Give the backbone structure.
Amino acid sequence: MPIKRLLIANRGEIAVRIIRAARELGIETVQVHSAADADSRAVQLADRAIDIGPPQAAKSYLNVDAILEAARSAGADAIHPGYGFLAENADFADAVVAAGMAFVGPSGDTIRLMGDKAAARRQAQEAGVPTVPGSDGVIGDMDAAKALAVDLGFPVMIKAAAGGGGRGIRIAHNADEFATLAPQASSEALAAFGDGGIYVEKVIERARHIEVQVLGDGTDVVHCYERECSLQRRRQKVWEEAPSVALKPEVREGLCTSAVALAKSVGYSGAGTIEYLYDDATGDYYFIEMNTRIQVEHPVTEMICGVDLVAEMIRIAGGEKLRLAQAGLRASGHAIEVRLNAEDPANNFMPFPGQIAELTLPDGPGVRFDHMLYRGYQIPPFYDSLLGKLIVWGEDREHAMARLGRALGELSVTGLPTTAPLFQALLASDDVRASAVHTRWLEPWLEENQHMIMDRGGAAA
Ligand code: ADP
Ligand code: ADP
Ligand code: MG
């Protein structure tokens, strides 16, 4: 049934993004919020706002009962979970459906399967998608796991099956380290995610992070090409682009086709992302995980494909069949997104929740800024530090980088430090300009170029 009233169980820039898509579809919006977000932009923009509890996420944005009660009292017929919070919580998806509403995303069973990163690896293997060499499912026996790690060759990664957002990953460089780290990783995963399952993967050195956007309606699945997110700090993405200039057409075809095959194998419904590591030297790619939700970096795909991914996922949740045929999905030009965080790049990216004093936003041709800011806004200290995302489109990568530099020059946020100076510095890097990067390129570069970021205003508050 078409959705008439959508509740947004999230906050920040993604809540604003979802409200916009809903409004264009003629859908009413109900924004739930914590006590700390009463003056947020999403609350201001939505048709209706409902307070669901105290600032701590566990008592508000993760409070399933409070969210379902708000949805019932507001007469919502669907819930969009955004990313983070409850977006990949299978029990929440089931509870929404049990309460008679649509969950904007795949079924609880699909989330359960693909959200367990070890189970997802097995699913990928069954669908014929190459995975990183590693353990067969979660580790049961520590001695057997150590023997496997030795066989794989160090370094190896110990990953939490329930991990996400760059958390729950450790690297072991030798058997002794493995023997110490693996049990630690398991007990930490139990504390952080409520699931102590861990698995092992060989470390792919100098790999690029390439991910494929898919959209499915439970029967058909299409892809919207790839994004490259190799510039990462602490395994979190800071700069994303589409397409990846590193892929030859036949590799792109293989990646995108394998992503569709995997999504089809689970009857995928909604927007999803299949993440891979790509080895330039060998041309090999390996599945690492699937994110069963909209991703932070989805706008770069929207810019090159001319598709509104959030609107499409809402339509699908409302029972529509896919409106897009693969043959009609063409990518054109190049898009780059940078994440503007309330962090101080001159001080080890320390989160710095403050008040927005002055604000000048970039605009003009090919520029999009998805954000949650206004002058005088006090950033609450309780949540992640993402303030917004600057996205540019150009005819090619060169043009997109020129636009990014121009738009960053127009952007001015005062009152608190942001990551903006980092991106000006990155644009000046020969490796970035040539896209000669991999997932472990950024961290050592940051060590060496701290002075350049500070010169560009990283220390100015
Ligand atoms: P993206 O590729 O969309 O950036 P991330 O994995 O970085 O995906 O996660 C996006 C958001 O979701 C971040 O705010 C991250 O902290 C959060 N997140 C993802 N997975 C989890 C998880 N398992 N537990 C807590 N937060 C998560
Ligand atoms: P999360 O669920 O936290 O997003 P991922 O499994 O997607 O975790 O991995 C996050 C990042 O960690 C990847 O983008 C990549 O930079 C790095 N990574 C993950 N697995 C490997 C691996 N086997 N070898 C090298 N780097 C990896
Ligand atoms: Mg990931």
About this structure: Residues 64 and 218 are 25 Å apart (CA to CA). Residues 132, 157, 163-167, 169, 201, 203-204, 207, 209, 232, 235, 275, 277, 288-289, 439 surround adenosine-5'-diphosphate (ligand 2) (CB under 6 Å).
